[in-house]
Amino acid sequence: MINYDLRKIRAVVFDVDGVLSCSTVLMNADGEPVRTLNIKDGYAIQLAVKMGLRLAIMTGGRNEEIRKRYNYLGVEDVYLSCAVKVTVWEEFLHKYGLTDEEVIYVGDDIPDYQIMQRAGCPCCPKDAASEIRGISAYVSSYEGGKGCARDIIEQVLKAQGKWLSDAKAFGW
Q: What Å distances lie between residue 66 and 22, 43, 77, 129, 147, CA to CA?
């Protein structure tokens, strides 16, 4: 269980590679990455959006397919090519009037470190880098791309009384 007052969480921000997708990325014939995505993570993401939780993606990845996938699930804020994520973090917080304490950030590797030091509730998958596990308030029992996002979102929505709370939960 996440040791944090999840009732005050207004947003969850995810990295992609190693968090929403497995750590291993296949390459197509053109050298473009081909990511795997977990369908249960997808369900939880779209439900969280429907239930009013603000979600965002911050990734160093450049593929527009990432934006398409998460826009399809209802995520409006998809930031690609994030070289220094803390700059984008500041913009995101300002855009929605959020404080660090109201946001969970889910990362898995060194590019996520600065933001995770700022986030009210830093979380990571169980296969995250040791430095990231060391600063996380919660280490999921799931690996990145294998249910980590679902685990975290489900805990937040349950704490807020929004998990399976109405008919929105029973469809896409």
A: 14, 16, 11, 23, 18
